[in-house]
Amino acid sequence: MWDPLDVPDNGDVHFTDYSRWRLSEEDNGRHLWDYLESDEACEARPQTIIDKFMLGLPTGLPTLPPAKTALEAARNGFSFFRHMQASDGHWPCEYDGPMFITPGLIIGSYVTGMEFKREERLELTRYIFRMAHAEDGGWGLHKEGHTTVFGTVLNYTALRVLGVRADHPVMVKARGTLHKLGGAVGAPQWGKFWLSILNVYDWDGTNSLLPELWLLPEWLPIHPHRWWIHSRNVFIPMSFLFAKRFKAPEDDLILSLRRELYVEDYYYIDWPAQRNNINPIDLYAPHTSVLNFLFGILGIYEPCAIPPIRRAATNRLYDLIVREDENTSYQDLGPVNKMMNLVARSLIDGPESEAYAQHKLKRRDFMWIGPNGMSMSGTNGVQLWDLAFIVQALVESGLAEEEENKGCLLKALQWLDEAQIRDNPKHYESAYRHRTKGAWPFSTKEQGYSVSDCTGEGLKAVLYLQEHLSYTPKLISKERLCDAVDTLISFQNPSGGFASYELVRGPKWLELINPAEVFGNIMIEYEYPECTTSVITALAIFRKHYPDYRAADIERTILAAVKYLHAAQRPEGGWFGSWGICFTYATQFALESLSLVGETYATSARVRKACQFLLSVQKEDGGWGESYKSCATEVWVDHAKTQVVMTSWAAMALMYAQYPEPEPIERAVKMVMSRQLPDGSWAQEAIEGLFSKTCAIVYPNFKFSFTIWMLGRAHQYLEQLAAVLIP
Ligand code: LAN
């Protein structure tokens, strides 16, 4: 057990000295926060403006002359944001939101004996305190979501593991809520999994995570290599640890949690009866009858699993775990499989192993301290994704040619040069990976996963920097750009659309066996308007500069993609977004694509319909505001307040469509300008991103990239419109 923490009744004040935290300046986009113990160390390494801003401390940046035009507002925005560029060229940020990720960090670390610094434990505690809902003390699936058993049981448990006493007021309140919800027995599968690992839930209470699935022939539609990469990569260590029935050794904390988490007596719970017990408050994708039937059969099979076959299957799983660790230098695909792989490696290789040491080293990449305390990030950062948008914003607004910004853009280009993945993965086909040669990842090269749209936006950013600016060297050769193009084309599906990390490999009916209960559309890849647009706009820009490379393939790819986009438009006129919220996000992308093939307000009924849809939801103050709930319901759900990020997306959409009236865009510009703070920044508003239909995630740099981009473009667009209207 870790020693108890004496912490205040709430997280309103910092639990550590915030003037001692520093974000280290690494070369390759890695984010590592240090807590400096001594005054001398602090003096030797004073806090930077970035440290202060990320921690929510006053930055001391000056008040700027108020902007009178959209361009001045964009310029002020970047005068501020320029200071947030790390020395290696990227823009770091927090990446929190999901409330099931940080508990995985804490429980996974505890069961493997991987300790935290005391200060880290304190700020992890404060973060969870700060995220508790004021009314009932519970936690949701994500930080803006309603209280659920999943959120509450995992965060409650995490706090206890961190060392908070059971009689602390935060715990008393949360426990009351958990008990009102019926206790931990009603947790969804992923909650049951972490509780089983910690030995405060019985493995008999989870449905079988059939390891033998990996022994099936690959041509079978159900074979897990066909699943969405995140589901597959979480399923692998989960299934492995299930097969091993891994559980932490009992200690006082575990014995006590067995009393705290349940309404009934732990030792009398009918575990098999809990397998399909999920509190309705948590449910988004309830088990289908097909799944329940299969789980019924597996329940009978499990006790008689044939040992040599089970062993072969677990060996196979372990091999895949090792390959994943080695392919990603222990960053892993995401934070969930990262912590599960750690538990598996610690079990097999032991705490003295190189694998354990590497996992420990890379665990730091996910631990981010922000104004609310410390949390585990949704990935090891948003490096490439943010950088690519900021670069495009600066080039399109013209700010990139301004003297004071040139150094930033040169550094951004160097970062892109370093971040491009130059080869296919070490374990390639053997780990069922898609090609990576020439790709850009979402975060860092080390993590090493190619994503279709990240490669698209990365390529666009490079082309903008190398081809559109007067002062940049051509760091990335034609050959490397062509590698990126080859990867982009390799991502196209027969429908013409593009998915995220891989081609769509499995049939849609696999969704019938989605066991996760709280997420939707996670079993296979799907085509997305957002990913499709990033790819084809990149290809279109590429061919302008390199018309001789695979011209016919590029033309074919774009035309097929546009066909997919036509088919994906919703009857109301918008496009449904899966990675940002929601219709404003995806409609912006889709209209960018359609503008490529000359489909604009003047020429296309679909584009007119899309504009009308957007205008029908523009609010009184000229802005747009959409709730994350749109993503779950698949119909527009208004946010009570307008948001600068969504307003920027919607205004960008209207400009891509070449909407002929200036008024709605002018109103959007005014609204975004009215929210700009005296130092040129914008305050954080509601959450912007989302995944798997239900779970929101923050993109704090969007409030800079998309505002600056929209303001810069609007400045030019409105001038052009005025010139047409008043010749
Ligand atoms: C992300 C973040 C980025 C996102 C985009 C690039 C925006 C998207 O267009 C493609 C998919 C991708 C890469 C994506 C996939 C799912 C991620 C990795 C996340 C939303 C960040 C966190 C999330 C991951 C699945 C969280 C762990 C949860 C599980 C359900 C495994």
TrEMBL record:
Keyword Isomerase in the entry? The reply is yes
Keyword entries, A-Z: Isomerase, Lipid biosynthesis, Lipid metabolism, Repeat, Steroid biosynthesis
Q: Which GO terms describe its cellular component?
A: lipid droplet
List, in alphabetical order, the GO biological process terms annotated in this UniProt record: ergosterol biosynthetic process; triterpenoid biosynthetic process
List the coiled-coil residues: none
Gene Ontology terms, MF aspect: coenzyme A diphosphatase activity; lanosterol synthase activity
* Record's keyword annotation contains Amino-acid biosynthesis: no
Stated family: Belongs to the terpene cyclase/mutase family.
Name-wise, this protein is Nudix hydrolase domain-containing protein
Q: Which organism is it from?
A: Phellinidium pouzarii
